[in-house]
Amino acid sequence: MTRSQQRNVILLGAPGAGKGTQAERMRDRFSLPHISTGDMLRAAVARGTEMGLAAKKLMDAGALVSDDVVVGIVRDRLAEADAAEGFLLDGFPRTLDQAESLDETLAAAGRAVTDVILLDVPEGELVDRLAGRRLCRSCGKPHHVTYSPPAVDGQCDDCAGELYQRDDDNEATVSNRLDVYRRQTEPLVDYYADRGVLRRVESSGLTPDEVFAAIDNILDRQASA
Ligand code: ADP
Ligand code: ZN
Questions:
Q1: What's the CA-to-centroid distance between 163 and ligand 2, angstroms?
Q2: What is the DSSP annotation of 71-122?
Q3: Which of 8, 16, 62, 82 could lock 130 by a disulfide, CB 3.0 to 4.6 Å apart?
Q4: What is the pLDDT of residue 123?
Q5: Strand pairing class (34-36; 86-90)
Q6: Which of 184, 186, 188, 194 is nearest to 67 (CA)?
Q7: Residues 76-122: pLDDT tens digits?
Q8: Is it the case that residue 225 has pLDDT exceeding 70?
Q9: Which residues line ligand 1 (CB under 6 A)?
């Protein structure tokens, strides 16, 4: 694959905008490695590493983990073989500093971000989505008690794993996460628009399949442009 055909994709959007749900579909459709900093941090928490323990306090409060830690995790992950021809970043970058260091890392390898998919959802919908969210403990697949209930109560549709609610999906933490998004992450919309790579998807009122169709369209068009 030539460099011009690389898909170096970022999924941008508020907590609850549907990044995880779409990432799963995009990974299958485009064979891109799904790199979720939230998942990697939660894995570090589960392993009980020193970094994980420090991160857990911040995550439970809805605050951001330090740029140094997250940038290091992502840089290591992008150096792995499966990310050499493309990747799908989910939950990173979340600050302007993270975006700048990602650009530097990629530029050092002669690469660049090709598409930033912004999942745009009105704030009122987000709280509802997060409060009802249930994740699979085995495979991470997101479900929702009202919008995408599992066929069997408490059980993952894909792998029958146990569904659980994330510690930070409670109302107090959610409002802090949305606040952090507005202040720290939303400026990235302009950052990537200025670089000509922002693709906005208005997701309100669309089913996950409809949102995915819009994304599919965007990435297909990029590939053949
Ligand atoms: P969501 O997008 O639903 O809020 P994530 O799973 O992406 O959830 O992230 C959960 C938490 O992990 C964040 O609230 C934050 O504490 C931490 N985190 C994830 N990615 C980053 C990042 N790029 N920079 C700093 N902290 C992060
Ligand atoms: Zn599962």
A1: 8
A2: HHHHHHHHTSGGGTTEEEEES---SHHHHHHHHHHHHHTT----EEEEEE--
A3: 16
A4: 87
A5: parallel
A6: 184
A7: 999 999 999 999 999 999 999 999 999 999 999 999 999 999 999 99
A8: no
A9: 15, 37-38, 41, 58-59, 62-65, 70, 91-92, 94, 98, 168, 177
**Entry pTM:** 0.90
Of 11, 21, 24, 37, the one to substitute when testing ligand 1's pocket (max ligand atoms within 8 A of C-beta) is 37
What number of other Cβ atoms are within 10 A of residue 182's Cβ? Answer: 12
Residue 91: count other Cβ atoms within 10 Å of its Cβ: 23
Higher pLDDT, 104 or 1: 104
Cα within 13 Å of Cα(117), Cβ side: 31
Give the length of the chain.
225
